[in-house]
Amino acid sequence: MLVLLDANAEPAAQRIAQRVRFASDLEALWYLRQDLLVAVSAIDGEAAAHQRMHEINRLFRRGLPQTMGPRVHHRFTA
After folding, report:
1. Which of 2, 15, 16, 27 has the CA that lies 20 to 30 A from 43?
2. Is pLDDT of 57 > 90?
3. Number of structural domains in the chain
C-alpha cells in the first residue's frame, strides 16, 4: 500500500500513507483500501487503480474473517 502512495506527492495521499503506517492491525488496513483506491485513481486512472487493488486484496487472504472479504457484485436482470 505504501509503495503505491509513495509515488504520489499529493497531501491527501501522504495523509493516507501516514494512516497506513500507523494502522494498528490488518482490519484497519482493510478499511483503508477505499481511500487508497481514490488516491491511486487520481494518478493512474480508475482502471489501473482497480487492477492494483485486486493485487492488494489478495494479500488479505487468510488474514481476515471470510465475511470481510471483497464482495462480488452481480448485475440483477429482470
Report:
1. 27
2. no
3. 1
